[in-house]
Amino acid sequence: MLAGYLDLARSLRLDGLALLRSAGLSRLDLSNPDTLIPAAGVTELLERSAEATGLQDFGLRLARLHSMADIGPVGLLVREEPTVRDAIQVAARYLQLHSSSLALRLDEEGKASVLRVRYLLTSAGRTRQATELVVGTVFRTLSLLVGHALNPEAICLSHPAPTAPTIHAAFFKAQIQFDSGFNGFILHASDLAAPIRTSEMAMPRYIKHYVEEIVAQPVVTFDATVRRTVFALLPTGQCRSATVAKQLGVNRKTMYARLSAEGETFSSILGEVRVELARRHIRTGRKSLTDTAQLLGFSGLATFSRWFRDEFGVSASGWRKQQQQRQSGHSPAGADAFDSPLAMD
């Protein structure tokens, strides 16, 4: 995720090391590309870097620096696949074993298909830069695989359009849909069928087997898998414990027991995800409260409103107003503490 960060910070005259420390990270976290580091720290680092530079496309600028080498063993495996479709399917299968915060999903629907890129982090609702870093890295990786810039029908980003000039158009060279219902791409059938130019340079079978063994070592905990599933099911209105357990191939009792062993409950995870999504949707003011209630899996606005007041200590409209005042530099007393990620605890 952070490959090239210090170089980018240096080119923009940022004190990258100080920003790393402020986000709870250190230089040692960047010394080994296979080291697992806190996703929350990465998200905060990118947001603070964007604020320090005044660049709304900081995450995308970092994605521009990424190469195939930066995605590790998974990069070796996707190079072996014959087409973009196959490469995406392999990446989706192995990425979910290594990160609790990243997920790919390809839905093929006739001539146009949707590749969803999910960043499943419980944060303070500020994920613009991390989302664009992930979406940009996927785009750049697929482009490198086929040997030319991918030509999707549209790039979809769920956050609002930037308010200042950015590199979005030059980077993607495709239609960009901001305020979209998902993050990712609308792809043509020809995009998915495009051949991988490196697939003919097949690695010896024993090396490929070794790489697959390394990549297949799961590091994601069960509670992270449940959280990933809750993120996916909430907008459908079908996010019940029995449904989640069925998706994971276990019964509800087993799911509860495994979560308990990790110090979690289904209710606590459901609450955390709802708080995160509420922050993301309400902060921007782009979706109505009724739409937000539906996206969070509530049966109606009244139920959502009672839940929101219980969680945040204020109405949803009042919280949105506080965020708008804070962003405009007129933060009411106590707003910083109120908006802290610790406010969920």
How large a portion of the residues is in β-strands, by DSSP E?
A: 5-15%
Rounded average pLDDT: 81
Largest sheet: 5 strands, mixed
Principal-axis shape equals: globular
Assigned CATH architecture of the largest domain: Alpha-Beta Complex
Describe the structure.
By secondary structure, the chain is α+β, with helices and mostly antiparallel strands. It folds into two domains: about 5-215, H-NOX domain, CATH 3.90.1520; about 220-345, Arc Repressor Mutant, subunit A (Orthogonal Bundle), CATH 1.10.10.60. Helix content is about 50%, strand content about 10%. The protein contains 18 helices and five strands. The chain has a five-stranded mixed sheet. It is globular. The chain starts with a helix and ends in a 7-residue tail after the last helix. About 35% of the residues are buried.
List the helices and strands and how they pair.
Blueprint: H1 5-11, H2 16-22, H3 39-53, H4 58-63, H5 72-78, H6 84-98, E1 102-109, E2 112-119, H7 128-146, E3 154-156, H8 168-172, E4 176-177, E5 184-188, H9 189-193, H10 205-215, H11 222-233, H12 241-247, H13 252-261, H14 266-284, H15 289-295, H16 301-312, H17 316-327, H18 335-338
Helix pairs in contact: 2-3, 5-6, 5-10, 11-14, 14-15, 15-16
Overview features:
345 residues, alpha+beta, H-NOX domain, Arc Repressor Mutant, subunit A, five-stranded mixed beta sheet, 52% helix, globular
Could you give a quick summary of the protein structure above?
The chain has 345 residues and is an alpha+beta fold. 52% of the residues lie in helices and 8% in strands.
